[in-house]
Specification:
single chain; 480 residues; alpha/beta; Double Stranded RNA Binding Domain; pyruvate-formate lyase- activating enzyme; 2 domains; five-stranded mixed beta sheet; 17 helices; 18 strands; 21% strand; globular
C-alpha cells in the first residue's frame, strides 16, 4: 500500500491505524500524491482533514472540518477520516476504534471525568470496551494505591520451555535444544539474584511482589527451583512481601516434586496455563499436552494446598472456533480457579495462511472479538471480574489482554508492571529492569542479554550494569 502524507507528518500514527485493518501490509510512504492499486491518501489543509482510500478496486473519501490550530486535533481528525474509509470498504468496525495504545486504562484514568465521552466520540471506542476500561481502571487503582515511593517488585526470567508454541513471541528455548545450558544458567541466575538483593538492601527498597516467569519456570527440576527460590529468600527482605507468583505454565511440566519445591520456596500464587481445552487446537499450536493433563495438573496443585491459581487462555488461536472457545471457558469454570487471564492472539504472518478472503485477519478478528466478549460476560457473572488490561501490537482484531479475578485474588505484579507503578528489578536472560522515579513518571531501563547463551557468555557485563541502579537512585535519595 502507498500511504501518502501531504501537509502533515503523522506517519507513525497513521501507519498504526492501517495496521489495525492490515497488520502485515507492506507500506510505502510518500509526501506527495502517489496512487496505485492500493493506496491511502491523507491530506491536511488549512481548514480540513481529508482521506481517500483505494482497496480491491473500490474507492472511498472522507473529509472533516478542523475546529482549531491544535496539532492533536488535526492528527485525530485525519485518523478518523482514514478509519471511516477503512470501515466502509472492509465492513469491519474494530471495537477499540482508532485507539492503538497498549495501556488504554492508563489513558482513561488520566482523562478523568471526560474519559468516557472522549473514548466514545473522539476515539470511536465501543460501549463494551469503554465499560471494560472503566472496570479495569477501578481494579488497578486499588492495587496501585498500595505502592510507596520505595516499593519495588522482583522479576526472575526462566527462558526455557518443553517445546516452542507456534504463536510464541517471547524469547524462550525448547528444552530439547537448550537443556545443556540450564545448569550453568541457574548457577549464574542465582549470582545475579544475590547481587540484586544486595543492591535492594543497600538502597533500603521495599519488596512488594516476586514473579518468576518465562518461558516455563517448571522446566527446571525441583532441585533447581528450590535453589533459585532459596536464593531469593536468603538475599531479599521479604517481610513486606504481598505476593509471590511462579508460572507453572505448561501442565505437562507440573509434578508433585516441583509443586513441593514451589510451595516450600514461598510462592503464594501459581499459573497453570492450558490456553485451550481443545486437544485438536493444542496439537495445531505445538502444545505437547492434553486438556486432561491440564485438569490433572490443576487437581494435583489443589491437593497440595495451592489456593490461588491462575489459568491463561488465548482467544483467536489457529483452528479454534467460537464454540470450542466457549467450551474452554466453561471447562475452566468447572475447575474454579481464583483468576483467569484472557489473551488475544498476537498475529504472525503465517497465521493468515489458515483463513481465506481478501483480508483474513479481519475474519479472524470478528471471531476473536466474539470470544473475548463471551469470556468477559461469563466470567463476570461468576464473580471473576476484570482488574487489569493491556494491549499488544498486531493482536487479532486489535483486541486486548485482560486479567480477571475473584475479589482479593488479583495479581498485583501484573498491575505494577503494566501500569509502571514502581521499579521492577529483573534477573535472567531477556529480563529488563525498569527503574521508576519515586514520585514522577520517568523510567530508566537496564537490559539483560536476550538469549541464554549470551547471558552465560557475557554475564560479567550484566553484573556491571547493575551498578546503574545505584546511579539512578542517587538522584532520588530524599524521595525514598
Amino acid at each position: 500500500m502507498n500511504l501518502c502524507l501531504i501537509g502533515h507528518d503523522f506517519r507513525y500514527e497513521l501507519e498504526k491505524l492501517v495496521r489495525i485493518f492490515m497488520p502485515f501490509e507492506k507500506i510505502k510512504f510518500f509526501d506527495s500524491e502517489v496512487l496505485g492499486e492500493s493506496y491511502a491518501l491523507t491530506v491536511l489543509n488549512e481548514h480540513t482533514a481529508f482521506a481517500e482510500l483505494n482497496l480491491f478496486g473500490e474507492n472511498v473519501k472522507c473529509e472533516k472540518i478542523l475546529e482549531s490550530n491544535d496539532p492533536k486535533e488535526h492528527e485525530l481528525k485525519l485518523a478518523v477520516c482514514l478509519y471511516d474509509c477503512f470501515v466502509v470498504l472492509t465492513g469491519y468496525e474494530p471495537k477499540w476504534g482508532i485507539l492503538t495504545g497498549v495501556r488504554p486504562a492508563k489513558l482513561y484514568s488520566r482523562l478523568g471525568e471526560r474519559a468516557e465521552e472522549y473514548f466514545k466520540n473522539s476515539l470511536m471506542v465501543s460501549d463494551k470496551k469503554v465499560k471494560l476500561c472503566k472496570a479495569s481502571v477501578k481494579g488497578e487503582e486499588v492495587i496501585t494505591s498500595l505502592s510507596r515511593p520505595d516499593s519495588f517488585s522482583l522479576y526472575i526470567s526462566v527462558p526455557f520451555c518443553p517445546t516452542r508454541c507456534s504463536y510464541c513471541s517471547f524469547v524462550s528455548h525448547s528444552v530439547e535444544k537448550a537443556k545443556k545450558l540450564i545448569p550453568q544458567y541457574v548457577e549464574l541466575l542465582c549470582e545475579e539474584i544475590k547481587k540484586t538483593g544486595e543492591i535492594a538492601k543497600n538502597l533500603k527498597l521495599r519488596l512488594e511482589t516476586v514473579y518468576i516467569g518465562g518461558g516455563t519456570p517448571t522446566t527446571l527440576d525441583a532441585e533447581q527451583l528450590t535453589r533459585v527460590m532459596d536464593t531469593v529468600k536468603q538475599n531479599f527482605d521479604l517481610q513486606y512481601l504481598r505476593e509471590y507468583t511462579v508460572e507453572a505454565g505448561r501442565p505437562d511440566t507440573v509434578t508433585a516434586e516441583r509443586l513441593i519445591a514451589i510451595k516450600e520456596g514461598g510462592a503464594t500464587r501459581i499459573s497453570i496455563n492450558p490456553q485451550t481445552m481443545n486437544d485438536a487446537v493444542l496439537e495445531v499450536i505445538g502444545r505437547k499436552h492434553t486438556a486432561k493433563q491440564t485438569v490433572e495438573a490443576f487437581t494435583l496443585a489443589r491437593k497440595m494446598g495451592f489456593d490461588n491459581i491462575n489459568m491463561d487462555l488465548i482467544a483467536g488461536l489457529p483452528s479454534d472456533t467460537f464454540w470450542s472457545f466457549k467450551n474452554t471457558v466453561e471447562e475452566i469454570l468447572i475447575l474454579d480457579p481464583e483468576s483467569v487471564t484472557v489473551h488475544s492472539l498476537s498475529l504472525k504472518r503465517s497465521a493468515t495462511l489458515s483463513t481465506k478472503g481478501q483480508l483474513p485477519e479481519i475474519q479472524m478478528g470478528r471471531v476473536a472479538s466474539d470470544m473475548v466478549d463471551f469470556a468477559n460476560e461469563t466470567l463476570s457473572k461468576k464473580g471473576i471480574m476484570p482488574y487489569y488490561m493491556y494491549r499488544q501490537s498486531k493482536t487479532v482484531g486489535n483486541l486486548e489482554n485482560v486479567g480477571y479475578a475473584k475479589r482479593g485474588y488479583e495479581c498485583l505484579y501484573n498491575v505494577y508492571i503494566m501500569d509502571e507503578t514502581h521499579t521492577i528489578l529483573a534477573c535472567g536472560a531477556s529480563a529488563v529492569t525498569k527503574l521508576k522515579e519515586p514520585k514522577g513518571p520517568f523510567i530508566k531501563r537496564i537490559f539483560n542479554f536476550k538469549y541464554p547463551y549470551e547471558y552465560i557468555n557475557r554475564f560479567g557485563e550484566i553484573i556491571s550494569r547493575k551498578d546503574g541502579i545505584y546511579k539512578f537512585y542517587k538522584n532520588y535519595k530524599e524521595e525514598l
